[in-house]
Each structure stands twice: as C-alpha cells, then as structure tokens.
Design goal:
The chain has about 375 residues and is α/β, with parallel strands linked by helices. It is about 40% helix and about 15% strand. The chain contains 12 helices and 12 strands. The strands form 2 sheets. It has a 6-stranded parallel sheet, with helices on both faces. β6, α9 and β7 form a beta-alpha-beta unit. α2 crosses α4.
C-alpha cells in the first residue's frame, strides 16, 4: 500500500537541519527537478513516486494523482535512474539494540526485567511509525554485553539500506568503518566521521534537576547513581549534575559504590550494598534513568527508608511507569518516541542523498516535578500530560 506522508518533522531542536521531505509544491532547489523534488511536492515517499512512474504494485488513486500533478507542475522528466530507484532500495532499515545485563536481586523481584525494555521499545516505536510513512520496514537485532557481535551487525548492514544503532552496540572505530559501507545514525553515540548522532540535551536537563533539588528543596548532600560507565548519556548526565551541585554549594557524593547499569536490579543492588556497608545515604539520589530509580525506591522502602521523607529519588526519561510509581517519580523528560522518529528521518535523508547538511541533532529535555523529590502530588489527569 502506498501512503501519503504528512508534512513536518518530529518536534525538537534541530542543529542545521530541516525535514528531509518538507511538504508543499513550488520551485526546486536543484535547478532541474529530480525525483526527490517530486516526492517533496507530492508529500509521498520516493519509493511511491517510483512506483507511480513504473506502474508497479497498483498505487493508491490519491497517491497516483498527487504524483502526476507534481510531475506536471515541476516539469519532471523521469530517467532510467529514477525509474530504477525503487528496485535499488531494499526499503529496509536495520535497528540494533543492546540487551540489558540484568543483576537479579536477592528476592528475585527483577528477574524478568530483561523482557521489559521500556526505553528502547519506545524509541523503536518512533522509528517504526516514521518508517511506515516512507514505506520502509525494520529489521531489529539485539547484542549482548561482553559479546563480539560485530560480524552480525555488518551482516545486517548488507540486508538494509542503512542502520540505526542504539547506545554502545559498537565502538567508535567500528561505527566509522560501518558508516563507510551504509548510512548510519547513532542514538547516544560517540562522534564518528560519516555518521550522524541523534540525542537529547542531557546536560540542560540534569542541571535543571540539580538546581531544583538544591535551591527549591534545600538538599545539601546529593549523589548520582550511574548507568553504564562508558555510556555517553551517563557521562553527560553525571558531569552536568555534579557541576551544578558544586556550583550551588552543596556536597556531591560519588565513588565506585554508586555505579549502576541502567536497570532496576542494578539500582536496588547499589542501595543494598550501601546500606550493608554502613555508609550514610545522601538527602537526594539522582538516578541515571527511570528504570534505575524504580529499583532504588524499591530497595529504600524495603529497608524502611521513606521516599522522599528519608531520601529523595529522581530519574531520567519519563517512561510511562514513572507516572504510576508510588510515590510518582520526579524525572527529566526526553521525547523518547521523537528520538526514534528523528533518527529514521535523518537516516532516510542520508539514504536518499537529498543534499541536506549532515549535523548531529539534539532534542530538548525538561524537568517534570512529582512526589519523589518532595514536591506535592500532581492532581492533573494523565490525559493532560504535556510533551
């Protein structure tokens, strides 16, 4: 089925980019009109334009009418390359995620956590919806920590028009080598020549969180419970939080005991070890992500520590469960599904080589104040949640 593409890109702050195929008709940017200009004017995918030109797969009447009108208005003359475009594209994008390394707590409460990948699932949903609008399908593969899955990822590249890589599935050198073979977009990746990274503004979000905890609530001792030690997102969040805490004159607690792994089981394990060691807890714990915060709240309450009365706890992401936790979780919201949609739109632009500049993209974040930091409980209905 051919699908008409609505104009506009996912919300957010783009650095030097626009929508790969903005809607509307008009003169082209390249002099002689191209198949990309026709797709842009018609508001459909390039593959759909090629199907209409080739008379393949019975395109929808509305799609055919849009394309034929755009062809006439632009004076487009299809050549052999344009007619063959849909045959050259596989119309498949590969997506590679990292499987979590789950550390099961003593009571086994989080033993099925690896089957609930809330954050990557939400990103992949955004990728999939955007891909369907361009008549593309996804090939999703996962890799594990401590395994060399390089060959499998490069094999996936041969089956795809391009790849979207989640956090830390390859090292920067491997990403660069992969980018020489197919278009590559990374999510929370390290900069690599020839690739584009899509991410959220970690530093602004964590700085705002630190100011809120210190200035609005008056907490004087604060800690950051980290994610994977080599995760770019984790490093940025920790650095920004520590800097702002210090700038506001509060004490930042750190050390090996505060190293988590982005999972609830990992967050619970850190709290269990801290309590067993007899170390004093800070007044507030900022967690690397919401999943970690779930485990932290569970472990604290299990040991009789009230949240937020004894220790305030915050997260990062604003996954759906954060709003249903008791107490509701204060967190830094990033536009998770928009990250996925933007990653696909960026990759699509690279695949079709539309001539747009290739710059990394950063989407905005914002602090969401809820009960777990000491703020009053929210009474707004969930349906009124603002992006």
């Amino acid at each position: 089925m051919d699908e008409v593409i609505p104009g506009g890109a996912p919300g957010g702050t783009r650095h030097g980019r626009g929508d790969p195929l903005p809607g509307g008709t008009g003169s082209t940017e390249h002099g002689t009109p191209t198949i990309y200009d026709v797709a842009r004017a018609a508001g459909v995918s390039i593959a759909s334009v090629s199907r209409v030109l080739n008379g393949r797969r019975n395109p929808l009447p509305d799609t055919r009418e849009r394309v034929e009108r755009a062809v006439a208005e632009l004076g487009f003359i299809p050549d052999g390359a344009a007619r063959a475009l849909s045959g050259q594209l596989k119309e498949v994008v590969g997506v590679v995620i990292r499987r979590p390394e789950v550390t099961v707590s003593a009571d086994g409460i989080f033993e099925d956590e690896e089957t609930s990948l809330q954050f990557p699932d939400l990103i992949n949903r955004g990728i999939e919806v955007a891909a369907q609008r361009r008549d593309f399908n996804l090939l999703v593969s996962s890799v594990g920590l401590g395994h060399d899955d390089t060959r499998r990822i490069f094999a996936l590249a041969r089956k795809s028009d391009g790849l979207i890589l989640h956090d830390r599935v390859l090292d920067p050198g491997q990403v660069q080598r992969l980018g020489q073979q197919v278009p590559v977009v990374t999510l929370a990746g390290m900069p690599a020549p020839g690739t584009v990274n899509v991410g959220s503004d970690n530093r602004a979000g964590m700085a705002e969180l630190a100011r809120h905890l210190v200035r609005d609530h008056g907490y004087r001792t604060l800690a950051y419970l980290g994610g994977h030690v080599d995760s770019p997102d984790n490093l940025a969040r920790c650095g920004a939080f520590e800097e702002q805490v210090a700038a506001d004159g509060a004490r930042f607690m750190s050390g090996p005991l505060w190293q988590g792994n982005y999972t609830a089981a990992g967050g619970a394990r850190v709290i269990e070890n801290l309590l067993a060691s007899g170390d004093s807890l800070p007044q507030a714990i900022a967690c690397a992500n919401d999943q970690t915060a779930l485990g932290v709240v569970y472990a604290l309450v299990r040991h009789g520590v009230d949240v937020p009365g004894g220790v305030a706890v915050t997260g990062f992401d604003d996954i759906p469960v954060a709003r249903h936790l008791h107490p509701q979780l204060t967190t830094v919201r990033q536009p998770i599904t928009d990250l996925g949609a933007t990653a696909f739109q960026t990759l699509y632009s690279m695949i079709t080589d539309d001539g747009l500049p290739r710059h990394d993209i950063t989407l905005p974040t914002r602090l969401v104040r809820r009960e777990s930091c000491g703020c009053p409980p929210t009474t707004a209905p969930l349906a009124a949640r603002q992006p």
